[in-house]
Structure formats: structure tokens, C-alpha cells
Amino acid sequence: DTLPEDFQFQRNCFVTHFPPAKPNSLLYCNKFNELSCCPPTQDKENMEFFQTMTDRGISCRIRGDIREHPLSVFYCMNCDPKSPTYLRTMPYFPLISMREALSTWPFMGYPTLRGQASYDCANYSALGNGADFFNPSAYDNIEDFTGCFSTRTTQTLVDREWAAANFQLYPNVMSLFDECLLFRSVSCLDDRGSILPNRDRWVCGKELINPSSFLAREAQPDGLCALNNLSVTPSFDRECRMLYLEKAINSDGFGTPQFDENMAFRLVENRLCSDDDFDAWAAAYDVEVAKLGGTEDSMYTVNPQILNGPTCLLTKNQSILLATDYSQNDPGSYDYFQDESCFSSAAVPRAAWLVAALCILIAALL
């Protein structure tokens, strides 16, 4: 699936393909009743998905107004009238080690690619299992090259401190769900085990998952934190936890309905990139792309975190540079905007900040 062209221009809503408008009454995402990017039908689906995901028995039922739950806030992003401004047009590489990705060549271990690639990557399979398959010069442009490794060509920018405080980074990544875990929709598969595209959530069943378990898989020497020179012992570096928080919110069947089928969720700092920030990222990006065209050992050291773009907010000029230099777009065919992230830090509920502060204090005392 590809995004509607008008949505990439950051003018219209993804769900309706029209500018935000006053909807008929919304029950679940009711804070957008004055101006919304979704109709009541999408509002209803948001609530149904949330209830199915969190229906874990009487002792685990959510107390109070479910609309204030962080997952509800996350799910209602598709109704937010400002949602078109939260986008960055750039392919997203799933946060898994390249060793894990290469183990299921040619699909790079990314399940969303099987059977529904946005690019005709089959044309490149004739290059064989060697490094040529990963050589950018073998493709018409860098967009085709990166597109063969990711079907999510647009990122939704999420304020990282909001995510850390609300989903809770301590004592475990996504500790919010530790006591009762969480249900996740199971993908529909064909006879060959390939994922069937365009299937609604929950149609093919569900499974109980522990989002905190993502961090426990960091043991391998080329894990995400090790690639970023972050400590994994004894209690994991905070930045290491951030990587796995981003990985968790991008797991299949977790993200904002409609959005997660087409876009990735990128955790970013709530600050503008300086020119030095952007130049440093661009230099690091070139190094990582060169590794993809190198030996198998060099490919194991590729860092997807860098391939996914800067973790600060781009200025308008930087957005144009990103598109023209790294996506091969014609700058005259797009309207470019300064980056903006959803859920700015100032919007974090006081109670969530209190919980986060207490957790940090307890961790410091231990």
C-alpha cells in the first residue's frame, strides 16, 4: 500500500483524504469533536481495537475513563487534526539487527514486506545472495534501494519523552503493561506462511505478549544497543531503553489503527536539529549505506537507527535536503514543512510525570 499523494503533502487527513472538519459526535476520541481527521466510524473502530487489546479479565480492567489511558491517546492520533504535520517522508528500517534480518533473505526479516512490497524487489533477486543485492549502485536510485527493505516509506514523529513517561520506561520498557501483559492481533497467513495483506486486526486471532520482553533480547553482540555504543549492563542505558520502546510501539498490531499499516512511529526529541546535527547524521548515514554494499561482516554492523533519520526535528530547509539527497524526490513536486512531533512534552499528564520521576528516583537509590 502507498500513501495518498495529498497526505504526503501534509495538508489532508489520512483517514478521510480531506482537510480536518467538524465531525458528527465522537465518543472515544471525543476531544477532537470540534475539529477532527476521522469520522465516527473510525472512532468506533479505534475503541473496539483498544477494548480487544486490553480485555484481560476482571482483575486487569482499566479503572476510570479509558479515554485518558496512554494507549487511547496513542490510538486517537488518527483523529488529531494536526496529524498531517507529524509526518516525515523517509523509509523506515525495522529496529532489528542486520544479522537477524539477513537470516531470512531476501525479505530482510521484515514480515510486512512479504507479499505486499511497495517496490518490485523481485527484479533484483537475480543479483544473487551476494553483496550486490545490498549495493545501492545496483538500483535506479536510493529510494528503490531502501524501499526493498521497508514498506513503510513515511514516519509519524512521536515525542520520545511523552512515550517514555506514559508507557513507562522503568523498571522495564513499557512497564505500563507488566502486570497484565497485552493482547496483540495475529497476522493472517497463506498456505506458504506468507502474510496476507489488507486484513483487519483480530480477524485471524490474537496472542498474549509482554512488550517488556523486547529488551531481554539484547544479549547478542550486534544488538541495537551495542551498535549504538550504549551500555546493556547492569540495568540498560536509558537510550538503550528508548530504542526498544520505539521497537515495541512499531510491533505488528500495536500502533494507531490505519497508521500502523502504512507508517512507522519514530521517537524524536522535542527540539530542532542544528546544522551541525544534520551534517553529523548525514555523514553517519553515508557510512551505514556503504556497509550495506560491503562484506557480510560489515553488513552485520549496520545501524538501522541511523538509517531512519535524525532523532531531532528537521527545519524546512533540512527537510528539503533530506528528500532531495536521500529519497531522490523532485523538490518542486512537494510542499515541505518544518518537522513537528505529536504529544509534545508539555502535554504529559501530571500523574504520568510523577510516576516517571518516582521510578527514576527508586532506580537511583538501588
Report on this structure.
The protein has 366 residues and is mainly alpha-helical. The protein has helices at residues 5-8, 40-54, 70-75, 98-102, 142-147, 160-167, 224-227, 238-249, 275-292, 296-299, 304-307, 316-326, 350-365, and strands spanning 87-88, 154-159, 182-185, 206-209, 263-268. A 3-stranded mixed beta sheet has the order 1-2-5. The longest helix is centred in the last third of the chain and has 18 residues, at 275-292. The N and C termini lie far apart (48 Å). Residues 1-9, 104-120, 122-132, 328-333 and 345-366 have low confidence and may be disordered.
List the SSEs and their pairings.
Blueprint: H1 5-8, H2 40-54, H3 70-75, E1 87-88, H4 98-102, H5 142-147, E2 154-159, H6 160-167, E3 182-185, E4 206-209, H7 224-227, H8 238-249, E5 263-268, H9 275-292, H10 296-299, H11 304-307, H12 316-326, H13 350-365
Parallel strand pairs: 2-5
Antiparallel strand pairs: 1-2, 3-4
Any descriptors?
366 residues, mainly alpha, three-stranded mixed sheet, two-stranded antiparallel ribbon
Main β-sheet description: 3 strands, mixed
Helix and strand composition category: mainly alpha
Radius of gyration using CA atoms only = 20 Å
Classify the helix fraction into a percent range.
Answer: 25-40%
The share of residues in extended strands comes to 5-15%
Q: What's the overall average pLDDT, rounded?
A: 74
User: Order of SSEs, N→C?
Assistant: HHHEHHEHEEHHEHHHHH
Q: What is the β-strand count?
A: 5
* Strands side by side in the biggest sheet: 1-2-5
